[in-house]
Input
Amino acid sequence: MKQPTSDIHTLAAAHALNALDGTDREEFTHHLRQCEACRQDVAEFEATAARLATAVAQQPPPDMKQQTMTAIDGIRQQPPHTAAPRTGFRKRRRIAVPLALAASVAAAASFAGLAAWQHHTSQEHRQHAARTQQQLDDISSVLAAPDTRTVHGKSSNGALTTVAVSTSRNKAVFTATGLPQPAAGTTYQLWLAHQGTMRPAGFIHHNGTVLLHGDPARASALGLTVEPSRGSPRPTTSPLLLMALPT
Output
């Protein structure tokens, strides 16, 4: 049965992670050829999932392949899994987006766990893995929240941007794609507008996804400027991006 257009838009995240099957996948694939907005959403979800995984990826040790192949012989095979009956499109629609977003974060988190296991004798690597895991947890809490709202924008230097805000978590996540490398000695600084005052909200040094600092619930807009590498207490350059936060 063909799904209502208002429902099928919500499957962009699940499609980006290959989480659709059967009729839903066929219908959304057909819909994707006709919907520019969904094509952009799918591309951004795919890019976000890839960046989350890449952020914590580590070069495996040379002998890891041999160790893995040796360990396989001692692993008991799990019994066949019986798929549960289909519960219908509407129920899947309610959970597709948060589950798909959470799945992308879980995939990235697995890399962090692997990195910690590989370098368990190194305190520096353990601390790095712990910090990365905490960042992933914070980002996932926003992306997987049922009340998360998003808004898209484009900076004056050509970057495609997305802000996701969760009212229940009172947190926001910023994603940038195609962000040019800043000049030496500078970086990109994020700002939240509170009653006309721009307050520092963190940094994004290149393409990626970051958790904003501050209180997005009381902010009306988000800004992006180029600042000295250590940051500034207030903007010192014209904004590359200034867009209203989703409500």
Q: What stands out?
A: The chain has two domains: 5-60+89-143, 149-244. Residues 81-95 have pLDDT under 50 and may be disordered. The longest strand covers residues 186-194.
